Amino acid sequence: MTRVALDAKKFSDDGVLPLRGFLPRKLVAAAQSAISSELTRLKIKANGKLTASKIQALPVFQQTIRLGQMIKVGDEIDRLFPEELLVAMNSLAGAPLERSPHPQILLSLPHKEAWSLDHLNWHLDLTPPKADQIPGVQAFVLIDDVQPRGGATLALAGSHKLHYVDREHNAHGILRQNSDFVSAPEKFLEPRTVHGARVQIVEMSGRAGDVYLMDLRVLHSPSINTRKDIRMMATNRFLLG
């Protein structure tokens, strides 16, 4: 594994931290090959071309869920979350974390529609704790290169701080009241200040072997894949014991 210097302050401030080139190419290549074989077996891809028109017609979020249910792979995905990665997350969380037993595959097929930030499914995978403390860390692994606007998961860096600035509203509620975020979310591709918190949309694009670590209180969403290649990522959640 590549040794990286963990920027604990950036993770604390943003709730999102990229680890470039953390996993060896050989490791992610094995996972990529296993997924490609499954796509061929399921006749989603044949002779280098996509043949899954019914799946492509689904909304982005539903498409990712459906593909994750269909693809069956073995240890190749588990190996993408080695002990070295857990050690890094423990350091950022400041306490030992326990991994979920089954990582998830995140796939999205190319779409012909234009890339947009409108009507995305910004969500959390758990209820944020009442106290301002990290409940866990989610790791996102790039199994193949993912270009910008290629369907990568989007994270709203800094949104974990919004849960604690208003007793009546969590981050969802605060952002629904923000006219810019509702009407012009593309403005948040650059840092913006909301209720004193610096927030910015981060697209988890990059090279195969890159890993993104995310505080589980950060709002995130799938995005539209406007590129020619299938978006291949995997994720796992690591929770405080």
Question: What do these coordinates show?
Answer:
There is one protein chain. The protein has helices at residues 8-14, 25-41, 53-56, 60-70, 75-78, 83-93, 171-176, 179-183; strands spanning 16-19, 45-46, 49-50, 97-99, 104-108, 136-142, 154-157, 192-194, 197-203, 211-215, 220-221, 231-240. The chain has 241 residues and is an alpha+beta fold. Strands 1, 4, 5, 6, 10 and 12 form a six-stranded antiparallel β-sheet that branches. The model has no long low-confidence stretch (mean pLDDT 92). The chain has a single domain (8-240), classed as Sandwich (Jelly Rolls), CATH 2.60.120.
Q: C-alpha Rg, in Å?
A: 18 Å
In CATH, the architecture is Sandwich
CATH topology grouping: Jelly Rolls
Tell me the structural class: alpha+beta
Total number of helices:
8
Helix content: 25-40%
Distance between the termini: 25 Å
SSE order, one letter for each helix or strand: HEHEEHHHHEEEEHHEEEEE
Q: Tell how many strands the DSSP assignment holds.
A: 12
Shape: globular
For the largest beta-sheet, the strand count, sense and barrel status come to: 6 strands, antiparallel
CATH class membership: Mainly Beta
User: So, the CATH homologous superfamily?
Assistant: q2cbj1_9rhob like domain
Contiguous low-pLDDT stretches (5 residues minimum) are none
Strand content: 15-25%
Instruction: Please tell me the overall pLDDT.
Output: 92
Count of structural domains: 1
